[in-house]
User: Fold this.
Amino acid sequence: MKSESEIYAKVIVDAPGLSELDYVVPPDMLVAIGDRVLVGLRTRTVVGIVVALNAASDYTGTRLRRIRTVLKDTAPLPADWLALTRFAARYYVRSWGETAIPTLPVFFRRSPGVRHECQLEKIRELTNCKTEAVERPVLNAKQRSVVDRVVKAKGFAPFLLFGVTGSGKTEVYLHIIEETLARDPDAQVLLLVPEINLTPQLEARVKERFPEEKVVSLNSEFSDTVRARSWLAVHEGRARIMVGTRMSIYASFKKLALVIVDEEHDGSFKAGDGSRYSARDLAVWRASHGKFPVVLGSATPSLESWVQAQTGRYQLLEMSERAVSRAQLPEVRLTDVPRRGSGVTLTSVTNDAIEKTLGAGRQVLVFLNRRGYSPVLSCPSCGWVSKCRRCSTFAVFHKGTRKLVCHHCGWQTDVPTACPQCGNIDILPKGTGTERLEEELQRSFPDKRILRIDRDSVSRKKEAEVAFQKVYRGEIDILVGTQIIAKGHDFKNVGLVVILNADTQLLSPDPRAKERLFATLMQVAGRAGRHGDRGTVLIQTRFPSEPLFGALEEQNYVLFTTHLMQERKENWSVPFVYQALLTAQAQTLSEALYFLETTAKTAESLAPNDVRVYDPVPMSLMRLMDMERAQLLIEADNRSSLNKFLWQWQATFKAPSNISWTIEVDPASV
Assistant:
């Protein structure tokens, strides 16, 4: 028989499809909303989060279990964090528990062991290495105007900071942070960056500017202990500044007062697994809910953010000149690609430009967004090409390790001594990667110091930081690299940037391909001439009349975006429609397509007039890790209509055990 004073807790757990579960609160147990608790789930004991307390339950009798333990090692998770995770779950069509629980550090989502208290004590240790305060640069008039606009804003204020490369956006961020912290002694700030390799250098710069503050960082490369330490420091209010990658948007702050998203256009802010969330979009929602400013910064804003600024939903802040008074935007020139069959990657025009730049005592950056020695090995006799055994893609030749490697699943094998099909020993590399480019440069410039930076050359912890320091100190003449060298680096002596293989992305069927290409090229071009004499950017291309290159020559983002928005409107594409993608994978493509065809029929019967259901098709990378994949695109004219439809639709799915499926809202690629 139920006690009159019995209390029931609604608890969320990490389990697909389960909403809040009711548990009985034992009479002698003190439970608060936001507490982490241990509860029984089927045959397991799991960590859950209390999201509500009620005097009654819809369930009675033996169906209800009791909460086993309340974990009081931290303060309860705050209401704003619960609201954030609940919104994300609703928007990305996931259960609340499977959205919220995985965002906690591993230490706080497992049952405490016998050494828990000892480990917690170590996690609470937080020391900043003492640094001497650096000189606070004086802002120019445009920078000062931007800072004033942000710090004087009241309540929720979304800003899009559109500043050319080298305009001093980072310094603006630091001034905004400084004035935000000075105004409120309890205020905290989150600075989001797109790439892990940018976190250490930006964290170091923040620590130098704020030697009296506790500054922490958070990214997926950190150990579980370091992640728990950073998370707990902001949760308890002991750290006032967090610098982190997309996972940081889910950190629990005691009093968050400002979020800054650097390079807001970057695709790294979109998660590729789990709930497939956008950290940038959640940053805007979090600021809206918390009624504080959010700053999205970029030299090439995403089209979604640009449209928001053009319609007045975001306040547009512009910085059109470089911060260093003598620095000018680089000159951009186009040149032809080498003749087919020439065996070289760089033309004589490019080599002459490199020679001239090095002769002037300046550094050269050569950008090729393709690692490895060559994309494929090929047999000229029978046409055999190196392929991944688990994916429908090529296996890339890595000469340094003598391996064929799949860059999608990680599968690798030794390079064969002869063609596996016909036995020909003269199998040849086709195409050029950064390894081969480095080799060519060493032949052309044997007396110069050449450094390659890509995921292969700096795979170990802190290797990237050490490598970039060599460039900053002037110990390198020619830097070769992939996209890792394009973002956020303030190279003071780069006089020439050479861009190779840009044409490949121009031909991509992905509607976002040109937008991403333009952003990447503008970023890497921005590494030239940041201090002192004007720099040069040389782009090898077969398509000099392409409008994208015309806008790039003028370094005119607005011109490029105007053309792109018109093209997107005519094609009825994002951001003028809203999309979701249902993907399915199975042992065979026919199984995946059959599931999607079945769900498509249901979708057509449920969809309102403003929701469109497309035919299922194989994914561009059809096979990944021995699983065949297909996709089904949904488009809508209205965001709320799409969300309502997705929840109704996914409730009808009856997937057999051999099918796994995922719904991605606002897909990064279609």
